[in-house]
Design goal:
The chain has a domain at 79-253: 3-Layer(aba) Sandwich (Rossmann fold), CATH 3.40.50. Mean pLDDT is 79; it is low at 18-66 and 73-83. It contains nine helices and eight strands. The chain has helices spanning 2-26, 33-37, 77-81, 107-119, 137-150, 182-190, 212-219, 233-238, 240-253; strands at 86-90, 95-97, 101-103, 122-125, 168-174, 197-204, 224-225, 229-232. It starts with a helix and ends with a helix. α4 (107-119) packs across α9 (240-253).
Length: 256
């Protein structure tokens, strides 16, 4: 009886052990909450292709190009025959202007083009190599005053045309602190105006010609300086028909 019970117990234990072994081989451990929260891949996400930087990253400013002499379409008979040639040299600014507001075409440029149209002259615009001039009026006056105090000679882009082919040169600029802008003295001192007829003109808001003629004569002593013209900048912008009549009368007095 005791042997039989032991035999049964042994078989029972053996059977139970076999069942437990088979159950262990067929089971799969479940994922934990931490495991489920891990990213699918440990490889960092690839950045998307960068958008075009056009308009987002300022490009390096391009150097000022060499100004070209602009021949007038209204060529006079004298110019065609080669007996005389006329040139208009001018410096002009856009941006905020006193009593005028923000402009996209300079006051002096407007007058210079009128002179060229009436005389058949070529045009040459004086452009600074380093255009550091502010577009706001008060800041511009500060820079202009500092240049005057320093007797600065800002460089201009390109070269003037061959002056030997011109008899008369009109020279214009806005009045800055009662004087020519300092960049114009760079033009005067780097050019040979000997034997030329020089005709100054200015744009202003109350200072008139401001001694442009005397200062030009002093800077270019071997040239003949003729009667100049002063035009209010506000008129150049808003009363162009009247300004053109004034220009025509002035030119008529000079023999044009």
């Amino acid at each position: 009886m005791m042997k039989m019970n032991f035999k049964k117990l042994f078989c029972l234990v053996l059977t139970l052990g076999l069942l437990l072994s088979m159950a262990a081989c067929g089971s799969t451990p479940q994922d934990t909450t931490e495991d489920a929260s891990l990213p699918v891949s440990e490889e960092p996400a690839k950045p998307s292709e960068p958008a075009s930087d056009t308009g987002t990253i300022p490009s390096e400013p391009e150097p000022a190009g060499k100004p070209e002499v602009q021949p007038s379409e209204n060529t006079s008979a004298e110019t065609e025959t080669g007996s005389t040639r006329t040139l208009v040299i001018y410096f002009s600014r856009t941006g905020e202007q006193y009593t005028v507001g923000v402009i996209d075409k300079g006051n002096t440029a407007i007058v210079a083009e009128m002179i060229a149209e009436e005389t058949g002259a070529d045009l040459f615009e004086v452009l600074p190599v380093d255009d550091h001039y502010p577009m706001t009026y008060n800041e511009l006056t500060d820079v202009a005053k500092q240049e005057q105090n320093d007797k600065a000679r800002p460089a201009y882009a390109g070269e003037l045309p061959d002056l030997s082919g011109y008899d008369t040169v009109f020279i214009g600029a806005p009045v800055w602190w009662g004087d020519w802008p300092m960049i114009m003295y760079t033009v005067f001192e780097n050019s040979d105006f000997s034997g030329k007829k020089l005709v100054p003109f200015s744009t202003h808001e109350g200072s008139g010609l401001s001694g442009f003629d005397k200062k030009l004569a002093s800077a270019c002593p071997d040239a003949e300086v003729l009667k100049g013209l002063a035009v209010r900048g506000n008129d150049a912008q808003n009363r162009q028909d009247s300004v053109r009549e004034t220009v025509q009368d002035w030119l008529s007095g000079l023999g044009y």
